[in-house]
Amino acid sequence: MSRICFTGFFDVLLGLPGIFRLQKEIAQCWEQDRPDAIVMVDCPDFNLPLAKTAHAMNIPVHYFMAPQFWAWKQQGMKIMQKHVQNIICALPFEPEYFQERGCRALYAGHPLQDVIPLQALDKLTPSHHQIGIMPGSRKKEISFLLPDFAEAASRIYQKKPWMVFSVARAPGVSREFLQKLWPENLPMNIVEPENRFQMIRKSCLILAASGTATLETALIGTPTIVAYKLDRPAAFVLRRLAYSKFISLTNILFQKELFPEFLQEKANAESYYRQAATWLNNPGVLVELRNKLQELRHIAGPTGGMAAAAKTILAQ
Predict the structure, then answer these.
(1) In this structure, which long-range contacts are made by residues 37-40, counting pairs with CB atoms below 8 Å and at least 24 apart in sequence?
(2) Is 198 helix (H, G, I), strand (E, B) or coil?
(3) Rounded-to-integer distance, Cα 61 and Cα 103, Å
(4) Which of 58, 137, 250, 271 maximizes the CB count within 10 A of its CB?
């Protein structure tokens, strides 16, 4: 994944030769050891050219975690129509969206429903003294977000010195990298990737980079402040490609802003601090939001999504 994950306009441009090489390597692997079928997951810019390649080799292609064409102006729907045998959707409104556009799509539910041990987490009591911080999985986005998260945390700590701050470390990101972006005089705990769900549940609120993490926090039931920031060229492009009013899947599924979103210029320490302080000074609001989030487990679909996807693929 490190060979295809980039943050920012110039990073993508610099990474294109490597992406093309990797696509060629994958196609060569298929030629040498032909698979019975190919399952593609997300990453449409990388995967869709490979879908055409696989179709030309008469290898069935199945797509799990459908591309979010409904959120962004993207090319690729024709490839999905012609070269993908099944689109296995994670979100409830996606099958109709793709079927109306001539694709073969079915609904399986979101895999996070199976990945997160929700029943066990529900037994844990959230702490009024802990704030969780999830600054992202890529170093560049962490560099954009964590310093302002830390500044907001510092301001909270000045008012409430009993607060504990727990920063989730993503795989591939070192503890040292996180520590360099955090003030030495502000206490914090670094949480290992395998313990992040427990950290989310035990926190009274979360500061998080937009992405899968915000759906995790919502399913677990923890109020979250969502942030994202890109370099200016990338932000300029994405603003003109966006269809969706929201960036957080939680807000998209509810069709309302349950999680406050702060993007680009608004993604700053002052915004995070004001929102966090509002919640901390009104604990009843946090309780109401936790209760509302319980509905998401039904909205996000049934459990067993990954098993259903596997059965669909094996039945072909």
Answers:
(1) 37/61, 37/62, 37/313, 37/316, 38/62, 39/63, 39/64, 39/313, 40/64, 40/84
(2) helix
(3) 13
(4) 250
The rounded distance, in Å, linking the Cα atoms of 203 and 205 is 5
User: 68 φ, ψ to 5°?
Assistant: -85, 60
**Cα(268)–Cα(251) distance, integer angstroms:** 20
C-alpha–C-alpha distance, residues 267 and 262, integer Å: 5
Q: Is 244 helix (H, G, I), strand (E, B) or coil?
A: coil
DSSP 169: P
Q: What is the mean pLDDT of residues 13-17?
A: 61
The token duo for 199 is 């950290």
Domains of the chain: 19-109+303-314 (3.40.50.2000), 118-299 (3.40.50.2000)
Q: Is pTM beyond 0.90 here?
A: no
Distance CA 110, CA 222 (A): 18
How far apart, in whole angstroms, are the C-alpha atoms of residue 140 and residue 20?
A: 22
Residue with tokens 């990388």: 46
pLDDT in tens, 156-185: 999 999 999 999 999 999 999 999 999 999
Number of other residues whose CB lies within 10 A of the CB of residue 67:
24
DSSP assignment of 251-282: HHHHTS-SS-EEEGGG-SHHHHHHHHHHHHT-
Q: Is 184 exposed, middle or buried (0-12, 13-18, 19+ CB in 10 A)?
A: exposed
Return the structure tokens found at 156.
């909270």
Round to whole Å and give the CA distance between 28 and 26.
5
Name 191's Cβ contacts closer than 8 Å, sequence gap at least 6. Answer: 132, 166, 167, 168, 169, 199
One-letter amino acid identity for 277? Answer: A
CB 159 within 8 A of CB 277: yes
89 in helix, strand or coil?
A: strand
CB 66 within 8 A of CB 105: yes
State the residue for tokens 């427990």: 198
